[in-house]
Design goal:
OMP_b-brl_3; Immunoglobulin-like; 26-stranded antiparallel barrel; 909 residues; mainly beta; 5% helix; 8-stranded mixed beta sheet
Length: 909
């Protein structure tokens, strides 16, 4: 109870502080007004406060419509005030703030017209605001010598990287990351941010990028995406750079990293390499200090995990090797080709203990299992991207991807089903799975601007394929015991060869006709075909007093054709975009075993669509959308073939299933106030599903679970999220609050009885950190999440489990050459279903020493999991069982590492 009160007390205090902060937005410590030479007020001018010693960023704001600005979060000290705007000469002022308000009055910006030999001379400024771009000078933010781009982004105001690796800029999710305007490893943020050094970057540009269609036609459709572009320093262009690092420690722990880059005005070339056995999947050792993801070798693919309760873990022992190369070339302006290849090897082994409570009306029982596993994976990934926007009347974009996976899995599971009255069954399973999967896709999009302004057409073609072969060898020993005198033993040997082939082709066409007055008529058409083929040969031998052999062999086809025709109206002005459409959708499905009579369905749907978006000014966006979607049954749900590979979990399809109709309403708002540094975003989505496809579960007296599917009733789902961040006036601190809620209710049939399953998830997190990170980076916070699952069959089976995390982080410089970093996390797990509580403290620390002034050589000592808490917990609630899995993890180790920067000599001249 005390922990519960402290947790909510902490959140309440932050909330009260936020209200106090919002209500106290009075005149700032430093204020003034920015005018042009003609005495006209200048709006959206960047006003930046810099430290005197090294000109690092302290705070910034922008001017309002009257040219006024104020900076209220100013500790006492000496500063440089920079005032800059595109097309004007920058103004610098030395300030000494003693605690008394400084009113600077009117400040004049004069146009930048001075040219020398055709070259405009412009001062380097910390923050520059353009029409759709905010550019931050990377030199204004202090980063360590071995920091990557992720560390740099964490220090830029308005930038956040969440625990899932998603990047948010000023409240909006970043969809793509580029280097010098070109894609780097497909624009994947996880690769870009973890593999380029921060000290190679000159500017960080946050861009509101128009859609390809809007960019060509010049008609604003409101479909912008947020893109981050890193521009390189001139000393890094035409001059290879990178770094190499390696380390080793106790228990034979090691790692090695390499990245090398060379960029010219036309060509970019990058190489990445990594090898380690310390559960790091990224390419930087700091991933571990941020609780990076590992690989969990224990799971149940047939069960859909409930909401987003699964968290990234560091289960077992992971060996990783990575190699990648990226090549890009610009043939001429706006025509470029980019390609990359990435190879990943991983081997994950470990052991886990699972506890499960299964319920089926009055026939409830428990299950426990010990599992040892080894998973090995070889992955090859090739990406190609061609863009040609050189013609002002049309553009062509081609993207392609090829992926090859080879997975070998070994599992030795010893399980036991039992009841309180003594009936039990032992299920020992030894499984070996070899899977080879090859998949790829290619997308081609062409946009053409026609003679009349606003008239255009667009076509697109996308093809995908997926080829998978899987060999499964299982040995199962089933021992059924009713009492000590009555025991039966059955052995099963199962060999299964399975081939899955999926191919799809989709074509779309869109024509836009201007109606005048910013009104447009759109005719859109979509055609798609998807084919799923499954080939199975299964030999199951039952070893008892007389052996029994069963052979299952079949070819199964599932063919789906989708035709959509949409008539739409859009209205586009500077601040408002609307879109309304009515869609006719015809879906034809044909499926069944080859050489047998197939099932055929043909259904027509009417789908309304509407969107309203309001963008009153930069940093504010409000959006309301409604859409009806149709989800056809998946091939496994409608299959006419029984899958009994697992003798305790049999799956049957239902060929009579019909498509689900999903009505989705989404409301979102994004507010980022540059003047007060307030950032707010929220999203609410409600889904109402008719003819919901639900699970039907039957559990017999031998604990065999048979899963099938039915259309039954409705399904409701509500997702909400909220993020809020602002500075605390006068304290030099910033706080952030995040909240996610998930509500889901649907029916399930358990042993022929209708059961309503309701799940409610709640997560709230709060973080407090300092604003000025030039010398010290401090961060502390807490996260609280709870899952409530209730059932209408038996209320005493209702489940509630919680997870609490408290963390703190310190990163500081102990002189010019020594850096210290430490992070402490404390986890608290509670669960009423298993009456188990776990408290897990994790403590990591690093100390680094740079040998030279340029910090080209760095020695680092890492202390990981100092308290040696090598445990990981994962929980989930499914249709008719609760499960808790406890796994071993790496535990404590120490590593000494060395980092060397490649070709880091300063450029002369």
């Amino acid at each position: 109870m005390v922990k519960f009160q402290l947790k909510y007390g902490f959140i309440l205090i932050l909330f009260i502080l936020s209200l106090t902060s919002m209500q106290s937005q009075s005149s700032g410590a430093i204020s003034g007004r920015v005018l042009s030479a003609e005495k006209e007020a200048l709006e959206a001018v960047a006003v930046v406060l810099l430290g005197v010693k090294d000109s690092t960023y302290v705070d910034y704001t922008i001017t309002d419509a009257n040219g006024d600005f104020n900076i209220s979060e100013v500790p006492k000290g000496n500063y440089i005030l920079n005032i800059s705007s595109l097309g004007y000469l920058s103004v610098y002022k030395d300030l000494s703030y003693t605690g008394e308000a400084i009113a600077l009055g009117d400040l004049i910006l004069r146009e930048d017209t001075y040219e020398l030999e055709g070259v405009t001379l412009t001062a380097v400024v910390p923050v520059q605001i353009k029409q759709d771009t905010i550019a931050f000078n990377a030199n204004s933010f202090k980063v360590d010598s071995d920091d990557n781009l992720e560390e740099l982004l964490n220090k830029i105001p308005g930038m956040e990287i969440d625990s899932d690796g998603k990047v948010n800029a000023q409240g909006s999710e970043v969809t793509k990351i580029m280097i010098d305007g070109k894609e780097f490893f497909g624009g994947d943020p996880s690769i870009v941010l973890k593999n380029l050094s921060a000290d190679a970057i000159a500017n960080v540009e946050i861009i509101d990028q128009k859609s390809d269609e809007s960019e060509l036609t010049g008609v604003a459709d409101g479909n912008k995406e947020v893109v981050i572009n890193f521009t390189l320093k001139e000393s890094r262009k035409n001059n290879g750079f990178g770094k190499i690092s390696a380390g080793g420690g106790l228990d034979n722990r090691y790692f090695g990293n390499l990245n090398y880059n060379k960029f010219t005005s036309k060509t970019q070339f990058s190489v990445i390499g990594k090898i380690n056995n310390i559960n790091i999947t990224g390419s930087n050792i700091q991933d571990f200090l941020k609780n990076a993801d590992g690989v969990d070798g224990d799971g149940d693919d047939e069960e859909e995990q409930n909401s987003a309760q699964r968290t990234k873990s560091l289960s077992g022992y992971l060996n990783t090797a990575v190699a990648g190369v990226n090549v890009g070339h610009e043939f001429k302006e706006k025509e470029s080709l980019n390609g990359d290849y990435f190879y990943n090897y991983s081997k994950n082994d470990g052991s886990s203990l699972s506890k499960r409570i299964t319920f089926s009306n009055a026939n409830n029982f428990d299950y426990e299992a010990e599992n040892e596993y080894i998973n090995t994976k070889n992955n090859h990934n090739l990406n190609l991207d061609y863009k040609n926007k050189s013609n002002p009347n049309n553009s062509l974009i081609v993207k392609g991807q090829l992926i090859s996976d080879e997975v070998n899995s070994y599992s030795n599971r010893k399980g036991r089903y039992f009841k309180e009255e003594g009936l039990s069954t032992k299920n020992d399973n030894l499984s070996t799975v070899d899977r080879d999967r090859k998949r790829g896709n290619m997308a081609l999009n062409f946009y053409q601007k026609l003679r009349k302004k606003g008239r255009s057409l667009a076509t697109g073609l996308k093809t995908t394929f997926n080829r998978s072969t899987m060999k499964n060898d299982q040995y199962t020993l089933i021992t059924r015991q009713v009492n000590t005198q009555n025991e039966s033993v059955k052995e099963l040997n199962t060999l299964r060869d399975q081939k899955l082939n999926t191919s799809a082709i989709n074509f779309n066409f869109k024509y836009t006709e201007p109606l005048g007055g910013n009104h447009y008529l759109k005719l859109e058409s979509y055609m798609g075909n998807k084919i799923d083929r499954e080939n199975v040969y299964q030999n199951k031998t039952t070893i008892t007093s007389s052996n029994k052999e069963e052979i299952l062999q079949y070819d199964y086809d599932h063919n789906e054709n989708n035709y959509q025709t949409r008539l739409a109206h859009s209205y586009n002005v500077g601040t408002i975009n609307t879109y309304a459409a009515m869609e006719l959708q015809d879906i034809v499905r044909s499926f069944g075993v080859v050489n047998e009579a197939s099932m055929t369905t043909d259904r027509l749907f009417v789908n309304p669509i509407a969107t309203v978006q309001y963008i009153p000014k930069r940093g504010r966006k409000y959006r309301l959308s409604y859409k009806r979607n149709v989800r056809t049954p998946r091939p496994t749900e409608s299959s006419t073939v029984v899958n009994d590979l697992n003798p305790f979990s049999i799956r049957k399809g239902n060929p009579d299933l019909v498509a689900e109709k999903i009505d989705a309403l989404t409301v979102s708002a994004i507010v980022h106030d540059f003047r007060s540094s307030l950032s707010f975003n929220t999203r609410l989505q409600y889904q109402y599903t008719k003819d919901a496809i639900i699970k039907s579960v039957d559990v017999d007296e031998d604990y065999v679970r048979t899963l099938s599917y039915q259309n039954n009733g409705i399904k409701r789902r509500l997702n909400t999220s909220l993020g809020f961040s602002q500075k605390l006036k006068g304290l030099g601190l910033r706080y952030s609050i995040r909240n996610r809620n998930f509500f889901n209710t649907n029916n399930a049939i358990i042993n022929f009885q209708l059961n309503e399953v309701t799940s409610r998830d709640f997560l709230v997190s709060a973080t407090l950190e300092n604003n000025n990170k030039s010398m010290v980076d401090l961060k502390a916070g807490a996260t609280y999440s709870v899952n409530n699952t209730s059932f209408s069959i038996e209320h005493d089976l209702d489940r509630k489990y919680t997870k609490q995390q408290y963390f703190s982080m310190l990163d500081c410089d102990l002189g010019e050459k020594v850096n210290f970093n430490t992070q402490f996390d404390y986890f608290i797990y509670t669960d009423n279903a298993f009456a188990s509580n776990e408290n897990i403290p994790l403590w990591n620390a690093t100390v680094s020493y740079a040998f030279t002034k340029q910090k080209n050589h760095v020695l680092k000592l890492l202390f990981i999991d100092l308290l040696d808490k090598n445990i990981d917990i994962y929980r989930r609630s499914t249709t008719n069982y609760f499960e808790e899995t406890t796994s071993e993890s790496l535990g404590r180790y120490f590593i000494v590492s060395y980092m060397h920067k490649l070709n880091n000599r300063p450029r002369k001249g």
